[in-house]
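Work Package 3 (structural annotation) set out to generate three-dimensional models for the target panel prioritized at the project kickoff. During this period the team completed the workflow that converts sequence records into discrete structure tokens, so that structures can be stored uniformly alongside our sequence database. As a representative example, we reproduce one entry of 449 residues exactly as it appears in the project archive.
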Amino acid sequence: MKRLSTQIYLVIILSLLAMVIVAAAFWRRGPDRGPMRQAFEVAGELASVALAPATAPLPAQQEAVEKLGQRLQLNLSLFSADRRPVAAFGPLLPAPPQDRDDSGWIYGRGGPAWAIELPDGRWLVARGRRRGPSHPLFGALAFLGAISLLVALSTWPVVRGLTRRLEHLQLAVDKVGKGDLKARVPVEGRDEIAKLATSFNHSTERIEALVGAHKMLLANASHELRTPLSRIRLGIELIKNDADPARKAALEQDIAEIDQLIDEILLASRLDALEQLEVMEHVDLLALAAEEAARFDDCTVEGEPVIVEGDLRLLRRLVRNLIENAHRHGKPPVAIDVRREADGATDTVRLTIEDSGGGIADDEREQVFEPFRRGRSSNTVDMVRPSLARGSGLGLALVRQIARRHGGDAKVDRPGGGSRIRPGCDVTRGSSRISITLPLTQPASAPKA
């Protein structure tokens, strides 16, 4: 297969050569019509004045031809109406063909010449005194060769520069296909190829991030699944000999943990692959928080009704994970607050969830959002109710993912005791917080909760 640069190069050269050939063909036919024909007729009139008449003696006609040739620095040959040579200055030029009845170019040995018909029927043939190519074809070939060389020298750098960037892109694609996800293409210029390189780099970065996240998720998931599976295996061995209801309940709890872990792993993978939300609808965040808080006896909700646009199922998972995280790793009571806040040119909604526990250590504020990372803080729930303290390890990681898919973020602040989880961008002063900012919207119809 020929390189793309060679193909483009050949197309340019052949196109220009075709243009030159067509132009040469029109140029060759041009003198026989239009203004050039009139010019030949005028030249014939002027030549008849400078030359001796057809009835003059041959020496007089020869003398007139020599004087005119010396003045014009041309080789001249004078022919009678029946194409017989009458006089010449320089070498005898070819006579016009018998079938020619008007002035124009004639071609023969020595190159092209002008054949001018005089008013009295005689013919005057003229050619430059500098000897040209022996055949007109040689001159045309030399002209085309010079044009081709000039075009070749001027277009090669342009074509090579264009295709060189495409070759870099091809090499990068091959590297990615072989598994090198760190391959990138240098972005040069501001044309379509530069945009293609930018899109390729962005896509490769996205693929690298997704593959890295999935590898980490699978590695952590395999580790996390070992614990409940080991407990189930041990429980099955024990229950063979002792049908203890407590052991059965523990097995059911372990199975529920595995089911929840698998569900959250699948949800995390789907969120990683999403470019944008698939379902968007108006949701009353205060009503949604109240519904989820009703599942617990020691959880209160305050605030004002605010409408956000997003995926109801994902927002419900966000609120539920926040409340469950506060109950598992914090200390009741848990308070939820939903408020509208002005953030520059746009209004935002902040959902704050706060428990009464010992809070989150300063150096763990970002780590708690990593999959399968649990803080070092030891809360009352962890010691008194260990079954409640166990989680999938993906709860807050999903909170941040869902918040960011809705245009927000999740952060933790712990200026004093207690943990506060709050959807919002800004971190307020007070207790520990996880903040997520969600944009407000004004629904055209009744909101859903």
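The chain has three domains: 33-132, 192-261+264-270, 278-439.
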